[in-house]
Each structure stands twice: as C-alpha cells, then as structure tokens.
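tool_call: predict_structure(chain=1)
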Amino acid sequence: MSKQTRTQASIDARESAIQRWEARSAVPLAFFAVFFLALWAIQVLAPLNEVEWDLVEAGIVLIWAVFIVDFAVRLYFHANRAEFLKSNVIEIVALLVPAFRFLRVLRVITAVGIFTRVVQSLQARVNLYIAIVLPMMVLAGSLGVYEAEHSVVGSKIRNFGDAFWWSCETIFTVGYGDLYPVTTEGKFIAVLLMMGGVAMISVVTANLAGYFLRQQRTAN
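tool_result:
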C-alpha cells in the first residue's frame, strides 16, 4: 500500500469517526442544550438564594464542559485541525468567551448550533429552525436583555414580559421603538438577535423559493 493510499485511508477513517460521533451525540447534546437554557432561565428569573444560585451555576458549567468535550473530540478526529479551527471560529468564541457575564448570551449560539446536527436535509433543518431554534433564540434574547436591563436606571425594559416583546420585535426586524436597550450588553444582544433574525428569514425565504421552483418543474 502506497503512502498516499495510507494517508487517504487515515483521512477516511477520521471522517468516519467524526460522523459516528456526531450521529450518536447529536440528540443527547440537544437535550443538554435545552436543559442549559432552562437552568439559565431559572437563574435569571427565580428568586434564588446564594446556595441555590451556585448549584444552578454548577449545572450550567457542567453542561458547558460537555459542550467543550464534544468540540475537543471533533477537533481530535479531524484530519485538518487548522482548517477545522478556522471554520469553527464562532463556536470557539461562543465556548470560551461567555465566562464573562457581559457575553454570556453567546452561549446560546453553541446550544443552537448543536440542534443543526440532529437533522441533515435542508427541509428538516428549516422546520427545526422554525419550531425549536427560533423560540430558543427569542427566549435567550429575552433572558439576556432582562438580566442586563431590568435594574438599570433609565431602562424601559423593566420586566420579563417587556423583554420577551422586545426580543420578538427585534428578531423579526420590526423595531417599533417602544422598547430598546440602554446598556452596552443589551445593545450587543440586540445586534445578535437582528443578525439571527435576518439569517432566519433568508433561510426560510430561500427554502420556500426552492420549493415553488421544484413544484413548477414537476408540473411542467
């Protein structure tokens, strides 16, 4: 067996290992992502004492450790690790930076990204985005902006209901202007929601256009 053949066999084996890992880990990690968001909601909204808050934070950190292990496994098996790191810069930032409170909302990017591994087809992913990912983004934005804004002097977002309404009108790029963040953290969350909303609308629009084109070709 030539060196080139052995190299290709090694690459194929690594790609196969990654595919098996992602197939087996996708659903459990998706449940961890939902549990993470639930713990964050409890931490932000529930009147916890110091001990309870620390216990919830420990659960969040434990889940985050699982996400980091998943990333490390995929990096280990990847044939071109430098290319893998370059193509997953956003995930790396989302895994490492949210240790700082100011950027904790970035955690949801990794949690949301995990759901895209559960299904493979474009149609299934669009359905998943609409049914699960979009509500997760709205909830995450609501939690993040409420945590950042509700106790700040001069803020218009004083309760979770206001935060939820603001997240909905922001992610759908309506922007009535009745509510808006005044803190730097809140404005950063607004940018993430606007970007996510534009991307979501683009994906859904492209998928619908493709569906109608396929229907027209079938009819012809």
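agent: DSSP finds eight helices and no strands in the chain. Proceeding to next step.
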